[in-house]
Amino acid sequence: MSFEAPFVLLALLLVPAAAAAYLLADRAGERAAAAFATPATRPSVAPVGPGWRRHAPMAAYALALAGLIAALARPQATVAVQEQRAAVVLATDQSGSMRATDVAPSRLEAARAAARDFLDDVPEELAVGAVFFDRAVRGVVPPTLEREALRERLDALRPLGGTATGNALAAGLRLLERRRRDSDGKRAPGAIVLLSDGVSTQGRDPLDAAREAAAAGVRIYTVTLGTAGGTIEEPRPGGGTRLRPVPPPDTETLDEIARITRARAYTVSDRLELDRIYEELGSQISTRPEKREITGAFAGVAGLLLVGGGAMSLRWFGRLP
Asked: Is residue 286 domain-resident?
């Protein structure tokens, strides 16, 4: 929480000053009462004292004063609000190493399932597009509010070949820039979620593509999928199968892509963790933080405290202090 006029909060010093003045007046009243009646006769003069109740109304008034001062400082709370024209492009690696089973049932199946859940969970107002790539870009779906074409393309994913990460990022950036031009020339919020499991082996340098995205104001969230011990099963020349190790994920490059674009990098080694990350990313991309003034709430609570203090005083003492 923040305040638009924080200097007004200096007036809160009035609260302890008022409390000190009240305590001094209360002690003066006690001394006057002691002079009026001796300790021996006091039970017969005032058999039942008000106890804590005599302080309760003033405590409510003090809290009300603090609330009114805070309201005058115009408090603000940061809340998440829905982005109206936001778009995200899922750039999904479908290279041959995505057949590895170190992420059950396989890296590709885990990525496919997480992307489906992402489509199911994000708000309907969020336009979602996709780029699918191996050694080249194999499929492109422009950002749209319709999800069916994306689901069909996800079902058609087949792992094959090398990895052209830079080309995929450039294709995703073009999709977002085209959408921005279609939005009356205004820059619509956009982001890319890159999921990959290996080193970029072909095409343009992914870091150059990341710098281009950063210059365009597009963040690239990276998800590095897999472990250092990934293997794929392949046939032997003479029959049977063998397990062939695949190169470890290139976490260093994907971390740098996220850093350049002021986004966040994730490293994933199991399906449940991938689902959680996609859910978190859907929430981040589809909303934006916005400050909302909550002066009315502070003023309302202060008003209730004032009414409560007055009600207590009338109920117990038959007068207002």
From this structure: no
Other C-beta atoms closer than 10 Å to the C-beta of 104 total 10
Place of tokens 């090398």: 162
Sequence-distant (6+) residues with CB within 8 A of 257 are: 169, 194, 206, 207, 210, 220, 222, 265
Q: Are residues 140 and 31 in the same domain?
A: no
Whether residue 131 sits in one domain with residue 70:
no
Q: Give me the domain span that covers residue 264.
A: 83-269
**Spatial contact of 62 and 165, defined as CB atoms under 8 Å apart:** no
| pLDDT tens-digit map of 231-284 | 888 888 877 888 888 888 999 999 999 999 999 999 888 888 888 888 888 777
Cβ–Cβ contacts within 10 Å for residue 192, how many? 30
Task: Give the pLDDT band of residue 301 (cuts 50, 70, 90).
Answer: confident
* Contact in structure between 42 and 294 (CB atoms under 8 Å): no
- In the chain, the number of structural domains is 2
* Domain-located, residue 277: no
Tell me the pTM: 0.67
User: Based on the domain organization, do 54 and 118 belong to the same domain?
Assistant: no
**Nearest-5° Cα angle at 97, 147 to 238:** 130
Contact 92, 223 (CB under 8 A): no
Is residue 287 in a domain? no
DSSP 103: S
Quickly count: other Cβ atoms within 10 Å of residue 122's Cβ: 21
d(CA 304, CA 41) in angstroms, rounded, equals 40
Q: Does residue 143 contact residue 131 with C-beta atoms inside 8 Å?
A: no
- What do you get for the CA distance between the two ends of the chain, in Å? 34
3-state secondary structure 46-92: CCCCCHHHHCHHHHHHHHHHHHHHHHHCCEEEEEEEECCCCEEEEEE
Retrieve residue 39's tokens: 């300790």
